[in-house]
Design a protein that fits this description.
The protein is an alpha/beta fold. It has 5 helices and 5 strands, in the order βαβαβαβαβα. A 5-stranded parallel β-sheet has the order 2-1-3-4-5, sandwiched between helices. α2 packs parallel to α3.
Length: 127
């Protein structure tokens, strides 16, 4: 779904640049925020089709930010996918119970990432 806006909330510059590069090459418009507070404000202003949310952020973490987004009637329908290095048993369930619509682990697989994002946008399903 080229042209869709995707918000990446990520504090690691290298992770942000890689995800942006892959998504822009796939035709998406990429918005970026380096912390949860800026991400929430940008989500309110831009209403992206999807938010890729890092779990470990300075200040408010990604789980808390997702809860804020999902409790807001204007933003509750925006799909949020946790994009995290936390890949231990129970981490995915923790993200889903916080309101995330999906869960992807880092490092991203650049060959599959665009397709994974497209699946979330099209169906909202968990991959």
């Amino acid at each position: 779904m080229a042209g869709e806006r995707i918000l990446i909330v990520e504090d690691n510059l290298l992770n942000m640049e890689l995800a942006m590069y892959v998504l822009q090459a796939a035709g998406y418009v990429v918005l970026q925020a380096e912390d949860a507070e800026k991400g929430i404000a940008l989500a309110r202003a831009e209403r992206p089709a999807l938010i890729l949310m890092d779990e470990s952020l300075p200040g408010m973490d990604g789980l808390s930010a997702t809860k804020v987004l999902k409790q807001d009637p204007l933003m509750k329908d925006i799909r949020v996918v946790m994009l995290t290095a936390h890949a231990m048993k129970g981490d995915k369930e923790k993200a889903l119970s916080a309101g995330c619509d999906g869960y992807l682990t880092k490092p991203i697989d650049t060959r599959k990432f665009g397709q994974q994002v497209a699946q979330f946008i099209q169906s909202g399903g968990d991959t």
